[in-house]
Design a protein that fits this description.
The protein is mainly alpha-helical. The chain contains 16 helices and no strands. The protein is 83% helix and 0% strand. The protein is globular and about 50 Å long.
């Protein structure tokens, strides 16, 4: 006689599964929040320690650091989906990273003059380049293999080094010392994340991973290009104001970074409970960041960053809201990639990236106008990815793993 599963027991099983997904997500998100808090404390300390122009230089360096690391951080999306990609890509990325570092060192003088950054800071950026690809690969593999403790340890290693060596070096030699501390922190995080393993890669899995890498690469550019363009286009005082705004907003975006990466392997296995949980957690973190920005008194802003930055307060809520929307967009993009990805997804994100660049170049005359360009871009981006995700969900194969109502024991 076959056992009949009651609707109540099926619902209980689904609730238990959703709670397990939530625990996984919240555990890693807590580590990410801790890392974000540590990096924010680092920025607060440097805003007080450095003169406005030096702090703007450091913010521009951090934007360049992100532009080197965040696009390659998109590799984490690929290896979270397909951990075995690491074995084939590891040596190649080390070679590319070392070559990129050498090229950055060669062009450090003219590039530094163009970006208004001192030579030692450009050389620090060159020293950071070799770690960008490997740390993304290794962290992505940890997500894919669900080694959450190692992920959290790697995330927390960076602020730990920034807050110790980084501040000590900044006190000794200024913004360049702080930049050196940031670079050392990246190397420390790579040492913690490093794992080994081999494996074959199926062609279909590799294509799906490439779509994820392309999508997350473009999302990284949307998140970070505004502060770099602001540094180049705006006068020193305005560039410093936007640097503060970007620091606070970046913390909101940083808080949700792990959510789509934790979602990818589950969504690829057809776990349909993973997406609602991921959206709820990313939405809650984003909403909390917006509420904190709305409640932040000007006195606290001035106490944290200095009296000269208090007038950025009216820009905080819309800009932090844009970063919260970006967190939701990343979750939707991750789910679309895990279900096979579409060319339309990459095209839509690329179009929004170009839109942001055009808006900043055309209207960016102060910190407020650059912030508004990013807000418009975030709204358009989230709407576009949401429409594509909705269309993809309707077209999903009914018998895909996890798509049906029958639970299969494992």
């Amino acid at each position: 006689m076959s056992a009949v599963t009651s609707p109540d027991s099926v619902r209980a099983t689904h609730r238990a599964s959703a709670r397990a997904v939530a625990r996984e997500q919240l555990g890693v998100a807590a580590g990410q929040l801790g890392a974000g808090l540590g990096n924010l404390v680092f920025a607060l300390a440097l805003a007080r320690l450095l003169a406005p122009r030096a702090f703007a230089e450091l913010a521009a360096f951090l934007a360049l650091y992100l532009l080197v690391h965040m696009p390659l951080a998109s590799l984490s999306a690929g290896t979270a989906l397909t951990p075995s990609l690491v074995a084939r890509a590891r040596r190649r990325l080390w070679r590319i990273g070392l070559l990129a570092g050498a090229l950055l060192a060669i062009v450090a003088v003219p590039l530094g003059a163009l970006l208004k950054l001192p030579l030692p800071m450009m050389l620090a950026l060159a020293a950071a380049a070799p770690t960008a690809g490997p740390i993304a690969l290794e962290r992505g593999r940890l997500y894919g293999l669900r080694r959450r403790r190692r992920v959290v340890a790697s995330l927390l290693a960076e602020p730990a080094v920034r807050l110790t060596l980084g501040i000590a070096l900044a006190s000794a030699v200024g913004a360049t010392g702080a930049a050196a501390g940031v670079v050392l922190a990246g190397w420390a995080a790579l040492a913690v994340a490093g794992v080994r393993g081999e494996g074959a890669v199926a062609p279909a899995a590799e294509r799906r991973a490439r779509t994820a890498v392309a999508a997350f690469l473009l999302l990284a550019i949307v998140q970070s290009q505004d502060v770099l363009l602001a540094h180049v286009l705006l006068p020193g005082g305005e560039a410093g104001r936007f640097a503060v705004l970007s620091t606070i907003g970046g913390a909101a975006a940083f808080a949700t970074t792990t959510v789509p990466l934790m979602l990818l392997p589950r969504a690829a296995r057809g776990d349909r409970r993973a997406l609602p949980v991921a959206l709820a957690i990313a939405g809650a973190l984003g909403a909390a960041a917006v509420l904190l920005a709305a409640a932040m008194p000007v006195s606290l802003l001035r106490a944290g960053f200095g009296a000269r930055y208090g007038d950025v307060a009216p820009l905080l809520v819309p800009y932090v809201g844009a970063m919260a929307l970006l967190g939701l967009a990343r979750v939707l993009a991750a789910d679309a990639c895990a279900r096979g990805g579409t060319r339309a997804l990459v095209v839509a994100i690329a179009g929004c990236t170009v839109l942001q660049t055009i808006l900043i170049l055309a209207t960016g005359h102060d910190a407020g106008s650059v912030a508004r360009a990013t807000v418009v871009t975030a709204v358009a981006l989230t709407a576009a990815i949401g429409a594509i995700a909705l269309a993809g969900g309707r077209a999903a194969v009914p018998n895909a793993p996890g798509a049906g109502g029958v639970a299969i024991g494992r």
